[in-house]
Structure to design on (76 residues):
């Protein structure tokens, strides 16, 4: 069952953390994910970074590319 917050977010075209996690799990289950880095902010305001097995240089590269993509999206 979908929560009211999830329903409202979907109606407004927003992606919630739950929806993002659901989409990522589908991607992983289909064996389409080779390497993953996640940065999360908890409700308490703490920042945590977690990553799958791989080269740290690749993890840093993924974060840098993600940063550039977010900045490009902000410019649009």
């Amino acid at each position: 069952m979908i929560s009211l917050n999830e329903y409202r977010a979907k109606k407004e075209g927003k992606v919630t953390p739950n929806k993002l996690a659901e989409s990522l799990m589908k991607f992983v289950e289909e064996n389409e994910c080779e390497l993953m880095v996640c940065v999360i902010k908890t409700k308490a305001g703490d920042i945590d970074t977690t990553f799958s097995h791989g080269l740290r240089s690749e993890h840093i590269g993924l974060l840098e590319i993600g940063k550039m993509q977010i900045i490009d999206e902000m410019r649009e």
